[in-house]
Write a structure and sequence with these properties.
Elements lengths: L1 H6 L1 H55 L2 H12 L3 H32 L1 H4 L2 H7 L1 H8 L2 H6 L3 H22 L8 H24 L9 H20 L5 H10 L1 H35 L2 H24 L1 H9 L10 H4 L5 H13 L4 H24 L5 H25 L8
Length: 414
């Protein structure tokens, strides 16, 4: 046991850091949730969630898949300073251009979507999410396996935001202060992280040639397409907010946040394990991780279902009980970390980027077919929207397993 702990000390340390971070990231909204619901009322709270959901599409654009490809490149080249400088520089340059482009897209949305155009200030303030995606180099810290920096700066960011919200958001009309204060915390975390990268680690920004930028764009292109195809993650909340109203979105958001606690914790496994598997390609060790995660997720799902009424009442009081029936449905999404782990550590590690992308495209098409069918049958409501995303998540997992079997890689998971 002692030798195992020594051998995997770095992995366990990074997992602990990311688990602490994700627990705080997921629990902090739940902690402040009762306060915001009481002060802002479900309608204004739902409006802020609608803004976050809409801007989340732009975050995918700014990310451009670098959280996968840049992590892999940094992990492989961490001991080669010149190459590392090139990777970091190219990634920041491209993400800056994407960040600027995201603002132009938002301006276009002001004209295309009335609900967005009528709340311009709210959406502009919510764009801090895109700035954070650009400036905070999660991919760098994951690649060098220094998750403590991600944890430290993110905790500082969240604490600043929570303190400001608790003390200064005091009435219903203060809903614009929520994204403002979240943004202040995010910007501070981003600036601290840049100090570590360029001052402490002495990474140097350099001018990259067009050919180098093209290479990194091409390298991330398929992952970006997979992320775009994965818009099904944001679409349910967007549909609920756009079609059913802000109050219904508040119910959906609470149920989703509760499930997200489990999903976020187990997503850490992929974040920590992927750089190691990408470098060592140890399938026997990977299988042990996979088995433990599988049974742990089953236990977590049962806990969510059994105690759902208690959890909803604890977080949102009796007025939020309509969120409770959504938990067994959305709870099926606890298989997401399993699909993510298999996708990154088996498909991408073995060079199956195209298959990885096609899997997410097919699962998105599956989701869209279900959603359109429900809309055509005039049964599109908060429950069918939830069932659509849950079934699409199961499809994604089983299709990944099918790909692994057809590519004769089944020994990675069985």
């Amino acid at each position: 046991m002692t030798s195992y702990l020594k051998k995997n000390k770095k992995i366990l340390e990074n997992f602990s850091y990311l688990t602490a971070l994700n627990l705080f990231n997921v629990l902090s909204p739940l902690i402040i949730y009762p306060y915001l619901i009481r002060v802002l009322e479900p309608d204004n709270y739902g409006l802020t969630i609608f803004a976050q959901t809409t801007v989340a599409y732009l975050v995918i654009f700014v990310s451009f898949g670098f959280n996968v490809t840049a992590t892999k490149e940094v992990s492989i080249n961490r001991d080669f300073p010149e190459k590392l400088n090139e990777i970091v520089s190219a990634t920041f340059i491209i993400k800056f251009l994407l960040f600027v482009s995201s603002f132009l897209i938002l301006i276009l949305l002001f004209s295309l979507i009335p609900k967005v155009g009528n709340n311009k200030v709210l959406f502009i303030l919510t764009m801090w999410l895109c700035f954070y995606e650009f400036v905070f180099p999660v991919w760098y810290f994951q690649g060098i396996e220094k998750m403590k920096y991600i944890t430290l700066f993110s905790l500082i960011s969240k604490l600043i935001s929570l303190i400001l919200i608790f003390f200064l958001v005091v009435k219903e009309s203060d809903y614009l202060l929520v994204p403002l204060f979240n943004g202040i915390g995010g910007i501070i975390a981003g600036l601290f992280s840049l100090y570590i990268v360029f001052k402490k680690h002495k990474v140097k920004l350099k001018i990259c040639s067009i050919s180098v930028l093209k290479y990194h764009i091409k390298d991330s292109y398929l992952i970006f397409i997979s992320r775009v195809s994965n818009i099904k993650d944001n679409t349910p909340a967007f549909l609920v907010g756009a079609l059913l109203g802000n109050q219904a979105l508040a119910y959906y958001d609470l149920a989703f946040k509760i499930v997200k606690v489990v999903v976020s914790v187990f997503n850490n496994v992929t974040n920590v394990v992927f750089p190691v598997v990408a470098m060592k390609k140890d399938n026997k060790w990977f299988k042990k991780i996979l088995i433990v995660e599988f049974f742990s997720l089953i236990v977590c799902y049962l806990i969510l279902v059994i105690f759902r009424d208690f959890i909803v009442t604890l977080l949102g009081s009796g007025q939020m009980l309509p969120a409770s029936p959504l938990i067994p449905i959305l709870g099926i999404m606890v298989v997401r970390p399993l699909a993510s782990l298999i996708g990154s550590c088996v498909l991408i590690t073995n060079g199956l980027n195209k298959e990885f992308t096609l899997n997410l495209i097919y699962s998105t098409l599956f989701y869209l077919v279900i959603t359109l069918a429900c809309w055509g049958a005039e049964i599109l409501d908060i429950y069918t929207i939830s069932w659509g995303i849950a079934l699409a998540q199961l499809f994604e997992l089983f299709h990944k397993i099918y790909i692994i079997k057809t590519k004769k890689l089944i020994h990675w998971i069985i």
